[in-house]
Design brief:
alpha+beta; Arc Repressor Mutant, subunit A; three-stranded antiparallel β-sheet; two-stranded parallel sheet; 5 strands; 30% helix
């Protein structure tokens, strides 16, 4: 079951789209995309809210469809992700990864100035509120293994995304 923090304020705008990895829910504050969730066990965080879309969410839905069809390799959307400065620095590094490119937790630690902060880097990657758009699925262990994934059905979802982009990995 996908859960949301009990104190999380309801988003102003919600749009859901079907995808090869399950339903996806994208939210917006009216000027930016604020979150993306992948269905887990048939549910999404804001399933209880009716859809209320806007032009940004329609653009996001179109770009996600293009991504899943293989026609889009980068996203061009205004984003607003809530997080700590460290989390935002990790997410910024992730945003620089190209289609089919991956990085490791260690490389992310070096790039953010915290080479020994593997656990903190992993936590920041796992806390990414905009998976796929900010491609946290492109992070592997130094030996190419998948160490986890919090989106959708977990590792099978990450495997699908990596294979979709042609990223070689060790299962």
């Amino acid at each position: 079951m996908v859960t949301r923090p009990p104190s999380a304020p309801a988003p102003q705008y919600v749009r859901r789209v079907d995808s090869p990895i399950g339903r996806i829910e994208v939210t917006s504050d009216g000027s930016s995309v604020t979150s993306l969730s992948i269905e887990k066990s048939g549910t999404l965080p804001w399933d209880d809210l009716p859809e209320r879309s806007n032009r940004i969410l329609e653009r996001a839905a179109r770009q996600l469809a293009e991504y899943f069809s293989g026609k889009r390799h980068t996203f061009d959307l205004p984003l607003s992700a809530a997080g700590t400065e460290f989390q935002k620095s990790v997410w910024s590094q992730l945003s620089g990864l190209e289609w089919g490119e991956y990085t490791t937790y260690g490389e992310l630690g070096l790039a953010t100035g915290r080479p020994t902060a593997g656990r903190a880097v992993g936590g920041a990657v796992g806390a990414n509120p905009l998976p796929i758009i900010v491609p946290c699925h492109r992070v592997l262990a130094s030996n190419g293994k998948i160490t986890g994934y919090s989106g959708g059905d977990g590792i099978p979802t990450k495997v699908w995304l990596l294979q979709h982009e042609g990223i070689t990995h060790v299962a």
